[in-house]
Design a protein that fits this description.
The chain contains 16 helices and twelve strands. The strands form three sheets. Strands 2-1-3-11-4-12 form a six-stranded mixed β-sheet, with helices on both faces. The protein has a four-stranded mixed β-sheet with strand order 8-5-9-10, with helices on both faces. A two-stranded parallel ribbon has the order 6-7. The protein has three domains: 49 residues, no CATH class; 171 residues, 3-Layer(aba) Sandwich (D-Maltodextrin-Binding Protein, domain 2), CATH 3.40.190.150; 129 residues, 3-Layer(aba) Sandwich (D-Maltodextrin-Binding Protein, domain 2). The N terminus is likely disordered.
């Protein structure tokens, strides 16, 4: 994590932290305070702007029902980020509806004062926007990005009892019948990846829907009723441990660190499909993140970003993420904005796949 926090130590940070609730008993001698204030007027201004959050309640919106992965991540962030920000409270408010669009649309239209922020399903937002999904009233790139929580790669798994071990095995099946690719729903990331795979395998893939969640898809895969399914790495690892999946490829241009048996799909398909794999890789990497409404004042956005950076670097946050088995791969707000920009700069061929996935 050091690359995210280099250059953020020293006297200036100590003064801001001293104003927070965890360090209230620390005080600098008046003479030293005057010297530092004179030497760092810009930082003093930043510190003053962060006073805005003192004695205020910040809402962290989770656009899905309680109990799921987004809810767990949201509660982790709120628990540790509130004190770092110096807010009186940071509370989680679940606002489910329309597959996450209800809460996201409302955050898009909310007053940009920093008191309403949200856990974002960024991959779904990008694909919904580019694919022309019904009900989208936002532009993903214009949110005020605070930081990414996690951005695991997607892994393609096969049935552990089946015969598929290589791309050639897939092509052999495709010559005899349609390859059955499981999906948890039309327009979902796995549905889009199934359609991309179909392009790469000469339209020999049939994307099978009708499952209520990924657990049901993995159960079907484990019984040999499906040939392929793609989900996040952590979900695939759990499925492999439960013997309902065998991980083979990442939907990306690179493998998984420490797991050389999982190969990048880009190594096995025609080079003309590499742009599609790269943009899907960027979309997936966008992952789950925190953002506020567009046009947050720069000083308040900086306060939120700095508090978030300190949160995800803290020992308590990292320990809780391990305890809950929730992987964390943080990015700063600026880095997250760059990822979103890359993901939304998609070639028309990819946009066409998305529009097809959303029935356009």
């Amino acid at each position: 994590m050091s690359k995210f926090f280099s250059g953020r130590t020293g006297v200036s940070r100590a003064i801001v932290t001293a104003k927070g609730p965890r360090m209230q008993k620390l005080a600098l001698p008046a003479s030293m305070a005057l010297v530092v204030a004179a030497a760092s007027p810009v930082y003093a201004q930043d510190a003053a702007s962060c006073e805005f959050f003192k004695n205020k309640t910040v809402e962290l919106i989770v656009p899905f029902s309680p109990g799921g992965g987004f809810d767990i991540y949201g509660r982790m962030v709120a628990k540790h980020m509130g004190p770092e920000l110096g807010a009186a409270n940071m509370i989680v408010r679940n606002q489910p509806g329309a597959g996450g669009l209800l809460g996201t649309n409302q955050t898009w239209a909310a007053k940009p004062d920093g008191l309403r922020i949200q856990v974002m399903s960024v991959s779904g937002m990008v694909t919904s926007e580019l694919g022309g999904a019904e009900g989208v009233s936002f532009k993903t790139g214009e949110f005020s990005w605070i930081g990414r929580i996690t951005g695991e790669p997607d892994v393609i798994s096969v049935s552990p009892t089946g015969s598929i071990r290589t791309i050639d095995d897939l092509k052999k099946i495709g010559a005899e019948r349609k390859i059955r690719y499981g999906s948890s729903g039309v327009g979902d990331i796995d549905y889009i990846e199934g359609n991309l795979m179909s392009m790469m395998l000469d339209d020999k893939v049939d994307v099978v829907t009708g499952f209520s969640n990924s657990s049901e898809v993995y159960s079907s895969l484990g019984r040999g009723e499906l040939d392929l399914f793609s989900t996040s790495l952590s979900s695939a690892i759990s499925a492999q441990k439960a013997e309902t999946a065998n991980m083979l490829w990442t939907f990306s241009t690179k493998g998984v660190e420490g797991m050389p048996e999982i190969k990048p799909l880009a190594d096995f398909v025609d080079a003309k499909f590499l742009p599609l794999i790269k943009v899907q890789e960027a979309v997936v990497a966008a992952g789950r993140a925190i953002a506020g409404p567009p046009k947050l004042p720069e000083d308040r956005l900086k306060c939120l970003r700095d508090a978030y950076d300190r949160t995800v670097a803290s020992e308590a946050f990292v320990a809780e993420s391990k305890q809950l088995n929730r992987p964390v791969q943080p990015l700063t707000g600026a880095e997250m904005a760059a990822v979103v920009e890359e993901a939304t700069r998609a070639p028309q061929e990819y946009v066409d796949v998305l529009r097809k996935s959303f029935g356009k």
